[in-house]
């Protein structure tokens, strides 16, 4: 890296390992500068900290809620944050203790979790890291729905797709999975940045559950 390289510059590199004559390459990148945490949410606070429901939100059950989740075959029993006193995350619906897998999953439409607005106008190499849970592989018609992660730079008036999970694949069978968004690769970064997470049941008969925890903006 040359002296004077601007902060925020992404410098690509590749590590290649060779064993018994067979190489395997692992591409990555190094960001120049000091990383600063601009916002961090473990969702354990006494308030929702500006997070809430957005549009579309027309599902009949399974609406996003911030709770200590009650697990099912499709939904997490525990949040992602470490520590015995850290219990809460955002999940799609909260069923009763011992309830069935489909008691309060997403049904009949979509439910949207909306972030507060972030001012990233003075940031370079802006990133969002979070942990997500998504399951649509239960029920009589598995693998029929998707989970959308969208980003806005005008406070939510318009959106671009950042991630679309499903309808099948390794990200659709539950379990906490780490995700990262390079915001500047998606759209111009402004003072009106916003995220939304949309879980939908638009197919027939699938059990749809999602969760979000430990989100950091850097």
Describe the structure concisely for a colleague.
The protein is mostly beta strands and 218 residues long. The protein has strands at residues 10-19, 22-31, 39-41, 52-54, 64-67, 89-92, 109-114, 127-139, 147-152, 160-165, 177-182, 194-201, 206-217.
Give your account of this protein's structure.
This protein has no helices and 13 strands. It has 218 residues and is mainly beta. Strands 3, 5, 6, 8, 11 and 13 form a six-stranded antiparallel sheet that branches. A five-stranded antiparallel sheet has the order 4-7-12-9-10, with no helix packed on it. The protein has strands spanning 10-19, 22-31, 39-41, 52-54, 64-67, 89-92, 109-114, 127-139, 147-152, 160-165, 177-182, 194-201, 206-217. A hairpin with a 7-residue loop joins strand 9 (147-152) and strand 10.
């Amino acid at each position: 890296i040359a002296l004077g390289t601007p902060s925020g510059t992404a410098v690509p590199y590749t590590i290649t390992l060779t064993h018994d004559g067979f190489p395997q390459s692992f591409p990555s990148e190094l960001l120049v500068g000091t990383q600063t945490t601009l916002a961090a949410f473990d969702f354990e606070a006494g308030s929702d900290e500006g997070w809430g429901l957005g549009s579309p939100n027309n599902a009949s059950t399974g609406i996003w809620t911030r709770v200590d989740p009650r697990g099912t075959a499709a939904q997490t029993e525990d949040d992602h944050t470490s520590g015995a006193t850290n219990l809460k995350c955002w999940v799609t619906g909260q069923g009763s203790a011992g309830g069935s897998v489909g008691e309060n999953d997403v049904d009949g439409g979509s439910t949207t979790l909306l972030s507060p607005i972030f001012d990233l106008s003075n940031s370079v190499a802006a990133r969002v890291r979070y942990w997500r849970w998504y399951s649509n592989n239960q029920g009589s018609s598995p693998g029929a729905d998707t989970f959308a992660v969208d980003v806005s730079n005008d406070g939510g008036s318009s959106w671009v797709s950042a991630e679309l999970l499903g309808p099948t694949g390794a990200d659709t069978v539950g379990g906490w999975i780490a995700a990262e968004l390079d915001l500047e690769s998606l759209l111009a970064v402004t003072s009106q940045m916003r995220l939304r997470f949309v879980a939908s049941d638009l197919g027939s008969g699938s059990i749809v559950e999602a969760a979000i925890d430990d989100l950091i903006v850097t």
